[in-house]
């Protein structure tokens, strides 16, 4: 397991890919209940909870303070990051481990994912998201499990429901680290994670 909190969070997220809701489309299940319980919730939409959960697990494992506000709301999470100076809208700064946030028009609805890897040449990134669907069919923000997805840096991504990329939380700022630009071991760990296929679980 990684010794860097961002890498450790990505490892936790990767292990959870393929987890499905039980019963179907219930926002429930043995694993999903545990994820929600860690932030004090049960049976609610959990995309934002999932992103915070993997960081909470990483913080506990490394015995460092957990900085996030423990909210189920994607937009509350982004507002917290904006006020704290952690929010970004310049996608040239997007990196593995950052928390990406979408918004529906100017409403308080949205979606959250954890960035696994970024491909600037293709203007796309791979995420691990809770409460989404495994493909383009099905709800992108209230789907039936935890899945790895390919998303794009264009403003409008979730075309059906008028979602757009609001921005992302720069987790290097949150934890005051700059591993991607300075540490060869961390770069290698991120590259390895990006190539790894998630385990087959249910």
Helix content: 25-40%
Number of strands: 6
One letter per element, helices H and strands E, the order comes to HHHHEEEEEEHHH
Spans of at least 5 consecutive residues with low confidence: none
Average of the residue pLDDT scores: 87
Strand content: 15-25%
- Give the biggest beta sheet: 6 strands, antiparallel
Give me the side-by-side strand order of the main sheet: 1-6-2-3-4-5
- Return the domain count: 1
Give the radius of gyration.
Answer: 15 Å
- Summing up helix and strand content along with how strands pair, one would put the structural category as alpha+beta
Number of helices: 7
Shape: globular
* N-end to C-end Cα span: 22 Å
């Amino acid at each position: 397991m990684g010794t860097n909190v961002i890498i450790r969070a990505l490892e936790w997220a990767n292990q959870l890919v393929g987890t499905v809701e039980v019963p179907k489309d219930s926002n429930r299940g043995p694993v999903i209940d545990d994820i929600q319980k860690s932030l004090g919730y049960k049976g609610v939409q959990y995309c934002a909870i999932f992103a915070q959960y993997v960081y909470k697990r990483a913080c506990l494992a490394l015995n460092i303070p957990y900085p996030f506000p423990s909210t189920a709301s994607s937009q509350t999470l982004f507002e917290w990051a904006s006020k704290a100076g952690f929010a970004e809208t310049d996608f040239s700064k997007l990196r593995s481990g950052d928390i990406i946030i979408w918004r529906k028009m100017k409403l308080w609805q949205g979606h959250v994912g954890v960035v696994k890897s970024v491909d600037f040449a293709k203007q796309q990134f791979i995420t691990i998201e809770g409460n989404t669907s495994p493909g383009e069919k099905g709800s992108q923000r209230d789907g039936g499990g935890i899945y790895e997805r390919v998303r794009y840096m264009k403003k409008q991504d979730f075309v059906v429901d008028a979602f757009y990329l609001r921005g992302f939380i720069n987790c290097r700022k949150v934890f005051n680290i700059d591993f991607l630009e300075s540490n060869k071991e961390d770069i290698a760990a991120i590259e390895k994670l990006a190539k790894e296929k998630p385990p087959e679980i249910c």
